[in-house]
Amino acid sequence: MNASLQRRQFFGKTACAAMSSVPIMNTLLNLQLASRAAALDAPTDHRTLVCFFLNGGMDSFNWLVPRDAARHATYTTTRGNLALTTGQLLSLNQDGGDGQLYGIHPSCAGLQEMFNGLGGDTAKRRAALLTNVGTLIQPVTKAQYLAESVPLPRALYSHSDQIDQWQTSVPQGMTQLSGWAGRAADVLHSTVNGNSIAMNISLAGNSLWQVGNATTQFVVTDRGALTFTGSEITDPLHPMRLKNTAHRSVIQQNYANLMQQSYGQLTKSSIELQEFFLEQYNSYDDSAVAGLFPTNNYIAQQFRAAVRMIALRQALGLHRQTIFITQGGWDHHGELLNTQAGMLTTLSTALTAFQRALDQLNLHDGVITFSASDFGRTLRSNGRGTDHAWGGNALVMGGPVQGGRIYGTFPDQTLESANDTGYGGRMIPTTSVDAFFAEMLRWFGVPAASMDAVLPNIGNFYNVNSSSLPIGFLRTGTWI
């Protein structure tokens, strides 16, 4: 993406992200959220949710594979020419979970180590896998699906619709212009973070996941914020810097017209906040962990930038923070085996470097990282790849995670089984995204009274007033 496009993107929809700290905007936010915020005590700790979205629909049933003889035989029969042998799989040594034998894709040695224990230390099992998770309005059986006797997510096998539904957690097909992280920010931001930069930071352009009804996101790059004044451009005669400096001189004028004066004040505050962020970002010395992130791995560099932003939470005034990262190219209708192997190597390397850096900087207990994707893919091969499906597997990792376990109900991979909708192995999810998200939001600090405002369908899967967790992948005592 070129610099001019990045600037247009930043100063389009997301320019107001920085303005969320301006007194006028804070007043509006506090009025809207006062009834809920009054019940919250501002925390003293720092917590970050990191979403890495795998655009295109990842074939995650070659990511996590059963390794016991009976289930692997079923997997091999169903997957045909796409099946991985038990000799190719990297062993996952469960510490509890469902007690079954599993392997991970041979390109994921780093993720295997995080699952089994960083550096061989089983006390540092940082990664877990959640199986057969997907968008649902309510629990669905195969008979109900075929009869269409219960509400189903709209446009189940559509890329754009399912991306939106993973990010909004509103699969009914209603027009939804906010995401669940954005709505969590609506509930938490003014009380938890006070007058600070927006708590939702995207390294991947505009993210629906992070747009709230009263709060927005702050879009950055792995080089920091893009400032409107062009202060990141060192050449004083650069046309962009000259133009933007001139614009700043205009907004700094005093105006008799109230609208002009308000616009100038808000824009000036926005610019100052962007430059404050860039100053903090550039001043942070990450040399202690920089060597963990390969320079030729673009996703790794995004995660390196995320480490900086997490390390700067206190300086930025953030007790709560979300970060959004994406990797595209997972729509493998053809050449699945070779293409996915290379992409998983890139992803596993990046995720492992990220978690190692957090551990080295003693930030691991304040960060949960999770994967998301459009949907799972068919178990049956289309010849060289797979097609759009429904349920799939997801990764969750971090210090608060009870790692080394497989969570959820792994589906019967026999074609036409009770888990299969009947179209070549489209798995009906046995765990809803709402349960997945609710568990992380309990750790994040969203109170039970506000959970349905963030996840409108959560009552169909979980009692938000329960003393137990919806899935159970968090370590005891880590949730609020």
Structural summary, described in words:
By secondary structure, this protein is of the alpha/beta class. It has a single domain (3-226, 284-460), classed as Alkaline Phosphatase, subunit A (3-Layer(aba) Sandwich). The protein has helices at 3-10, 16-19, 23-37, 69-79, 109-116, 142-147, 159-168, 180-193, 239-251, 258-283, 287-290, 298-311, 336-360, 433-444, 448-454, and strands at residues 47-54, 64-66, 90-92, 102-104, 127-134, 200-202, 217-219, 320-327, 367-373, 392-398, 406-408, 431-432. Strands 1, 5, 6, 7, 8, 9, 10, 11 and 12 form a nine-stranded mixed β-sheet that branches. A three-stranded antiparallel β-sheet has the order 2-4-3. The longest helix has 26 residues, at 258-283. The chain is globular. The chain starts with a helix and ends in a 26-residue tail after the last helix. Mean pLDDT is 85; it is low at 1-40.
What attributes does this structure have?
disordered N terminus; Alkaline Phosphatase, subunit A; 15 helices; three-stranded antiparallel β-sheet; 12 strands; nine-stranded mixed β-sheet; 37% helix; 480 residues; alpha/beta
